[in-house]
């Protein structure tokens, strides 16, 4: 079990550029979550998918953010155009079934995004 | 909206001392409750979870938490702190009948020799 894999680990980009964050969930997990972590706001749920379908995107801050899950083994979070206030650590997590079941949420190691 | 409140953003203890990290939830229906730990430059790891099977929940690394409905609390404890326990700890809730996991603001635990 390789765990949840996120890439890149670090991304530094200039304001206005497009940023794409990638996530490979654990094989067999059917729910995938994108979180953002900052000092000011802590951990925020941005969006989550179940069986590749977006279930709740109410946490996506604005239209500059979009997320896709074209298949069970891959998801992307895109920011276009990026702004300095988007600087944060972005985590992807996956789980099998609902949170209340025995399967916990497994987190990747995150992507640290810096927008200058 | 249902949420969790963690009292104290920083807690410092001596090695060997009791660890107590506080968490209160807001819910009229007991939700699913969790404690996660985050070590520097890593993602979060599950410490333990409450899913109504037992009010005292034992987790990894000697941690445990007790669900108290009368106090709407789910405090995390460990009898004897170890240097390796230094990390950030998050209480989290999954409101009833949803798949969301909502985190508290976190408590950073420092352990002094």
Explain the overall architecture.
The complex is a heterodimer of chains A (116) and B (113). Chain A has 116 residues and is mainly β. Chain A contains no helices and eleven strands. In chain A, the strands form two sheets. In chain A, strands 2, 4, 5, 6, 9, 10 and 11 form a seven-stranded mixed sheet that branches. Chain A has a four-stranded antiparallel sheet with strand order 1-3-8-7, with no helix packed on it. In chain A, a hairpin with a 2-residue loop joins β7 and β8. The model of chain A has no long low-confidence stretch (mean pLDDT 92).
* Poorly predicted runs of 5 or more residues of chain B: none
Average pLDDT taken over every residue of chain B: 90
CA distance, first residue to last residue of chain B: 41 Å
**Could you describe the largest sheet of chain A, including whether it forms a barrel?**
7 strands, mixed
Cα-atom Rg of chain A, whole angstroms?
A: 13 Å
- Give the CA-CA distance, first to last residue of chain A: 36 Å
Q: How many distinct beta strands of chain B?
A: 11
Largest interface: A-B, 22 and 22 residues
Principal-axis shape of chain A equals globular
Helix content of chain B: under 10%
Mean pLDDT reading of chain A: 92
Instruction: Report on the biggest sheet of chain B.
Output: 6 strands, mixed
Q: Helix content range of the residues of chain A, please?
A: under 10%
Order of helices and strands of chain B: EEEEEEEEEEE
């Amino acid at each position: 079990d390789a765990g949840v894999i996120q890439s890149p680990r670090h991304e530094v980009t200039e304001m206005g550029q497009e940023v794409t964050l990638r996530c490979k969930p654990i094989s067999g997990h059917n729910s995938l979550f994108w979180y953002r972590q900052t000092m000011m706001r802590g951990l925020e749920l941005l969006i989550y998918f179940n069986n590749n379908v977006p279930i709740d995107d109410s946490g996506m801050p604005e239209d500059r953010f979009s997320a896709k899950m074209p298949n069970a083994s891959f998801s992307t979070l895109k920011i276009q155009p990026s702004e300095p206030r988007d600087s944060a650590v972005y985590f992807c997590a996956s789980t099998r079934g609902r949170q209340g079941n025995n399967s916990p949420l497994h987190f990747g190691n995150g992507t640290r995004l810096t927008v200058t | 909206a249902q949420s969790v409140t963690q009292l104290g953003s920083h807690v410092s203890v001596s090695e060997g001392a009791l660890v107590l990290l506080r968490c209160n939830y807001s819910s009229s229906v007991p939700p699913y409750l969790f404690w996660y730990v985050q070590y520097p430059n890593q993602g979060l790891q599950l410490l333990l979870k409450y899913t109504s099977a037992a009010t005292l929940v034992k987790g990894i690394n000697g941690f445990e938490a007790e669900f108290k409905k009368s106090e709407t609390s789910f405090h995390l404890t460990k009898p004897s702190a170890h240097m390796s326990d230094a990390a950030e700890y998050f209480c989290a809730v999954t409101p009833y009948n949803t798949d969301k996991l909502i985190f508290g603001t976190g408590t950073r635990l420092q352990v002094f020799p």
